[in-house]
Amino acid sequence: MRSLGRARLEIAGAAILFSTGGAVIKATTFSGWQLAGLRSLVAAVVVLLLLPAARRGWSWRTLLVAVAYAACLILYVTANKLTTAANTIFLQSTGPIYILLLAPWLLKERISREDLGVLAVMVVGLLCFFVGADRPLRSAPDPSTGNILAALAGLMWAFVVMGLRWLGRASGPEVADPGMSAVALGNLLAALVALPMGGHLGATTATDWAAVAFLGVVQIGIAYLLMSRAVRVLPAFEASVLLLLEPALNPFWAWLVQGEVPGSWALLGGGLILGASVAKSWWDSRVPMAA
User: Fold this and answer.
1) Is 159 helix (H, G, I), strand (E, B) or coil?
2) Dihedral in degrees, nearest 10, Cα atoms 121, 122, 128, 134
3) What is the DSSP annotation of 162-182?
4) What is the tens place of the pLDDT at every residue in 240-285?
């Protein structure tokens, strides 16, 4: 059995690696489509090699979840190329809004009064990103379009999370990491769709290819390896809170590397979204104890 201390380091390490995506994506000269395809191609190979669970349990259910995950991967990269890293990650973090709205129909999960309060706060946070107009930056040339793509990434991420729950129920508790096969297949699908859309690569640099290798091997592959190990030991609440290091650190790396400063409305919206996420995770962790 892995120790709790080691599991905490692993989940924190995964979140830190996930958080580097925005800054590294912006450091390349590849287009959004090109980078999404190359990143996912490398990531698919790494996940399949490192995670035995990713090579098992493929089914039509896996394919449905993988389609949503592939869309999320492509939207995340293309959004990062157009808007700030902070806007992208905070808007993708609005996934719980759509989960709370759709789960009663798709998963037959009831919404509590506390969930409605979380939903209201997150909706306000989401709307903050569309108040006024963000100033275009060198690293964020089209914030309005990027914000829309990032919000769509949040919707797709909601389908991924609900799909992973669905896979877990269908597979049963005896199957470890049933979602890893969807992660591998989703990356394969993203590569198959994005690479043809990206067109001719043109002139590239060693930095571009180093970024692709880092994103595929480290930011996705090793990060998922660490996360898959840690979640077997850590309580769900502790894991979800530690994973919030990703949206918290993502803007920091973009500021450090690209000098990218989020707008005040984006910071307010991000704070509301992250705060509501922590509150919901905390409340959910108390429910079994109170039953």
Assistant:
1) helix
2) 160
3) HHHHHHHHHH-TTSS-TTHHH
4) 788 889 998 999 999 999 999 888 888 899 999 988 888 877 777 6
Residues 174-195 pLDDT 10s: 555 778 999 999 999 999 999 9
The answer to pTM > 0.85 is yes
Which residues neighbour 25 within 8 Å (Cβ) at sequence distance 6 or greater? 35, 77, 80, 81, 85, 211, 215
Residue 173: φ, ψ to 5°: -70, -15
Distance CA 229, CA 144 (A): 38
Contacts of the segment 113-118: beta carbons below 8 A, 24+ positions apart: 114/280, 114/283, 115/280, 118/276, 118/279, 118/280, 118/283
Q: Are 4 and 233 in contact (CB under 8 A)?
A: yes
